[in-house]
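Input/output pair, single chain:
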Amino acid sequence: MSARSAEAPSRRIAVTGASGRLGQALLAAAGARDVFGWSRATWDLDRPDDVGALDRDRPDLVLHCAAWTDVDGCARDPGLALHRNGTATGILARACRDRGVQLLAVSTNEVFDGDRTDGLGYVEDDATSPRNAYGASKLAGEDGAREAFDGQAGLWVVRTSWLYGAPGGAFPEKVVAAADRLPAGEPLPVVVDEVGCPTWSVDLAAAMLALVDATPGGTYHLAGTGPASRLEWATQVLGVRRPGRKVMPISRAAFARVSDAPPWAVLDCGRARVIGAAMRPWDTALAYYLGAPELAAPELGAPEVRPSTR
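Output:
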């Protein structure tokens, strides 16, 4: 899959995990760029040593979006999580370095423990301390990539938070499905004391492409602007998709799950904002994703995408 034109930049870009949420958004955002997708059949997290696609396709830059993002699955099998998200990223990074290929590795807010209580978002240089297997595996991937490039330019690490978007299956769709399972009039219980930055894959893809154009490398936080609780996020989703359905705040402790999610998943994206890669407010982006632009501030504009119908 490729997007090409006579005006395309000379840099050839490969996207791992091309069938995933972020991979699809990047291919759609490519415009005139020479961008092509690598499916699992091309490069597999379970067989990362097979990097023949690098020699066949000869990209100048790899946007590494492939990951095992099932956080509960990672908690059940931390060894597999470490292999897929950590070891595989390090192997890909070394292969890129050896061939003079640039690399952007996508990471997560979950490299931080989420225990801060000062109301500030995490900045790139804050100490990492993952509280779950998923965060530990993604941090291992960051470390492997940095070790491979050893301070050389051409490596970006991008951390994001609470990603959603086509083809669905993320928090907005799960909220609607959960509401639909309830009897009429019964409120949906939603966690109120877990806070993050909902991030639309469309906005993240555009910001990533802007980042690699504007900087030689480095670690950056890219997420929807502004904090939101799970309860606030769910309230906006249901207000559009299931008007009249009430929500009921519950604590993290009352919502049992295998993986221990960080209670504070907020990223400070000031470094990206300086170079023009920051994103819109989370509620504005969500309004467009839900197909309800009337809920968004009109001066922030609509993206050139088709709204979700899920």
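Confidence is low (pLDDT under 50) at residues 1-9, 300-310. The chain is about 35% helix and 15% strand.
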